[in-house]
Write a structure and sequence with these properties.
Helix content: 25-40%
Structural class: alpha/beta
Mean pLDDT: 86
Number of strands: 8
Distance between the termini: 33 Å
Shape: globular
Largest sheet: 6 strands, parallel
Strand content: 5-15%
Number of helices: 10
């Protein structure tokens, strides 16, 4: 059941999905610039250090799932939206003993720099989901590279590393060009997924739960989103369904290493 904190936040939730039409309705994302660091005269302290980019010899440049003989799955969240809903979701995961991977949008970190610390302090994993959540595969190379490195710079300033993974925005799979640019920026692998929860469309918690549990398999990487009340409500029954199948929710790095 959705906790009280999530219910209170639902009315003001920001849409954080990967639907390009949602971004258009919201208007162009504002580049607020990086959060100030102590070296810049700012007051934000670095969060607990994040893991550096994950490198697994033998795995492809683009990863959709982990080992199918694993008794685990990775729940990965596109990181944007109302921080109250994000915090409620992290709390649900932690109460169940689950660890998740959050791929953050850089301009969200500009507005909510404290969320980097909150995610890491919960034992979760951070990654890069571009700076402004543009259609990265449609951008010229220089602009696409700036989207990757812009978010990486924010993660480095707040956490000490550029994060464990890069996931392209507004697409399930990166083009060869975007994969090469991600590697140039320091990410050996691009993180895709094999299960799309479709939660960004706000179908309601029961539909999100059914979509995930009907498709998930050992080793799956599941795509979900912060900032949606239905996702917060769906997470406990999803985790319960995974437990009933003998599956654990772990970070993506834990899944593939």
């Amino acid at each position: 059941m959705l906790r009280a904190a999530a219910s209170a936040a639902a009315a003001g939730a920001l849409m954080s999905g990967c639907d390009p039409h949602r971004d258009e309705e919201r208007g162009p994302a504002r580049d607020a610039g990086p959060s100030p660091s102590p070296a810049d005269g700012g007051t934000h302290r670095p969060a607990h250090a994040a893991r550096p980019p994950t490198r697994v010899p033998g795995l492809p440049a683009q990863i959709e799932n982990g080992p199918r003989d694993a008794r685990a799955v990775a729940l990965t969240f596109h990181g944007r939206g109302d921080p109250k809903l994000a915090t409620a979701l992290l709390g649900e995961a932690e109460r169940a003993g689950a660890r998740i991977t959050v791929l953050v949008v850089g301009d969200w970190l500009d507005a909510q720099p404290q969320m980097a610390r909150r995610i890491l302090d919960g034992g979760h994993e951070l990654g890069n989901h571009t700076l402004h959540h543009r259609d990265i595969c449609a951008l010229p190379a220089a602009d696409a590279y700036a989207e990757i490195t812009g978010c990486a710079d924010r993660l480095r300033r707040l956490t000490g590393t550029i994060g464990s993974w890069f996931r392209p925005s507004q697409t399930r799979r990166a083009t060869d060009l975007v994969t090469q640019l991600a590697r140039k920026a320091g990410y050996p692998h691009v993180l895709s997924y094999d299960v799309d929860s479709l939660d960004a469309n706000d179908p309601g918690a029961p539909a999100v739960r059914r979509t995930v549990l009907d498709a998930v398999r050992p080793g799956s990487v599941v795509s979900l989103h912060l900032g949606h009340a239905g996702t917060v409500a769906a997470l406990p029954p999803i985790l319960d369904g995974l437990r009933r199948r003998g599956l654990r929710a772990v970070t993506t790095t834990e899944l593939v290493t």
